Amino acid sequence: MEAPSTRLPIFYIFLLLSVSSPIFIQKSLADGVTPDEAKQLRDEVREMFYHAFNGYMKHAFPLDELRPLSCEGEDSLGGYALTLIDSLDTLALLGDREQFAASVEWIGKNLRFDINKTVSIFETTIRVLGGLLSAHLIASDHTTGMKVASYENQLLDLAEDLARRLLPAFDTPTGIPFGSVNLLYGVDEHESKITSTAGGGTLTLEFGVLSRLTDDPIFEQVTKNAVRGLWARRSKLNLVGAHINVFTGEWTQKDAGIGTSIDSFYEYLLKAYLLFGDEEYLFIFQEAYGAAMHYLFNDPWYVEVNMDSAALVWPLFNSLQAFWPGLQVLAGDIDPAIRTHTAFFSVWKRYGFTPEGFNLATLSVQHGQKSYPLRPELIESTYWLYKATRNPRYLDAGRDMVASLQYGARCPCGYCHISDVEFHKQEDHMESFFLAETVKYLWLLFDLAAGPDNLVENGPYKYVFSTEGHLLPATPQISLVREHCSYLGAFCKSSVESESDARNNATSVEEAKHSFSEGTTSTETPPSSDFDELTSTTGLIRGVCPGLTHGQKFGIIYIGSTSTDDESVTEREAAQRHLTVVVTDHNSGHSTSDEKNVDNSQEHREEDVMNDPHPI
């Protein structure tokens, strides 16, 4: 019998992880990792950062990225000092005021986006837009201890200019954006209409923060519509595929998983709820997470299945899946996170790194997926699990990861991709996310063990990490908008209610906080008038802002595939069947649909998986 999972309400686990709570603190560190050694490891990771950062600044800046073997630079995204932008909040986290201020000033004076460059919507958003916004929020706020005296919102202005140049990509019939856009001329008439689920569904944090900082709702609206467009086209099993046509809404690759091309779609559903307090994201996450755990989880591994039939497609661990245990920690589902992390780390221990693909049937590196491009996902999950449990095994894991990077990936001017994890062959490339994420999470891990003294652990706000590891603070301006409040005593815009209505709404807020661990699905739909009640923004009330009652928890329209296996089910019936409403069910462990695996006879097949250049 499977051990029951330890699951805590999302708000509670997030709050506990955001402060130094004695509930989680243990005095013992890992075997052999004394407090002094934890400090030494933290300092070693700091040196790793500066070895790579100084190598970039000396040999590659202002080009995008460093070639650490040849000590040269290259433009890989847009030709606008990508690695410097991606490194800004890591500099702030390390307390490097001088370099942070100098970098902010240079970017403010020299960066321009009115250039004839076609760029990835996804990569530009998470790396450049996210980097600019995070640095702006640090440089403009004296409570962070890193305020730049000469700073006058130049990075925010650049972020807004960049985002407006990305907006033409969202002009599609489905609301799901094109994958690329030209910063000067918009979307090319020959641009591909196929995009990945992660590419269309991992934009909400950066665009949402920008809307709140500029008071322009357009950025948040288009990215939320993209999420709705993807979720509306989910299968009957509440699964989404890997690639979709942004014009027709038809899935062009129906492999459902938690890794390549889909991963951060799940991540941003939960994190958008945590940062913005928007219950709609929580409702979608609950349904999507429940389906993933029901159909994709083969304890402790995750597989890929057909989104319609749940037939096994791909018995593969790919390195992008390694973010999942960290996401489960944020969701409060800790037991499966522990087991999965143990399995994933066993692959790292075997090769010294995680290959892009590890075949679970042959227990060997997948052909054509032998590289390790300095990805941060497993390190990220190690940090979150140590933060939640204080289990010493995660410091041991972190120490092993440092050793692997130092002895296997260190190059004359930085850190190299590993092109073959079996032979530790180096490749002359260093992605900007190595400085934005990989060393950041390692440093946070050992700083936490040594006695944290940094912006994330001791700063003025709780922070949500973007998928690029950028720090997005839950400030009142960002998080306390409209009806969405995260703590008692907050000021929120709403209509004035009677005392009894306020009590009812206060109860519903608590229900919403607990609904993840108690939810299931229903086919009830609320009356249309309930939707109007959700948009009230007049007045100002102090206290718990109006939440959603269970009768108001609305469904997301389901758009069935034009070709279904069951011709007897009409599109209207399918749509009605898959309107979802969260209700309380204390006997439910995960939220799942009633459909089971209806096709286990499909032969296993293997096909080349697109190696996305960045951990989405």
From TrEMBL:
Hydrolase recorded as keyword: yes
Predominant cellular place of this UniProt entry's protein: endoplasmic reticulum
GO molecular function per UniProt: calcium ion binding; mannosyl-oligosaccharide 1,2-alpha-mannosidase activity
GO cellular-component term (any): membrane
Active site: 123 (proton donor), 263, 356 (proton donor), 377
Compositionally biased region (Low complexity): 517-529
Biased composition (Basic and acidic residues): 592-608
Binding locations of Ca(2+): 467
Gene3D superfamilies: 1.50.10.10
Region (Disordered): 502-532, 585-616
Entry-linked SUPFAM superfamilies: Seven-hairpin glycosidases
Enzyme Commission designation: 3.2.1.-
Keywords: Calcium, Endoplasmic reticulum, Glycoprotein, Glycosidase, Hydrolase, Metal-binding, Signal
InterPro entries: 6hp_glycosidase-like_sf, EDEM1/2/3, Glyco_hydro_47, Seven-hairpin_glycosidases
Cleavable signal peptide: 1-30
GO BP annotations, alphabetical order: carbohydrate metabolic process; endoplasmic reticulum mannose trimming
Pfam families noted in UniProt: Glyco_hydro_47 (PF01532)
Record's protein name: alpha-1,2-Mannosidase
Species annotation: Cucurbita maxima (Pumpkin)
Gene encoding the protein: LOC111473105
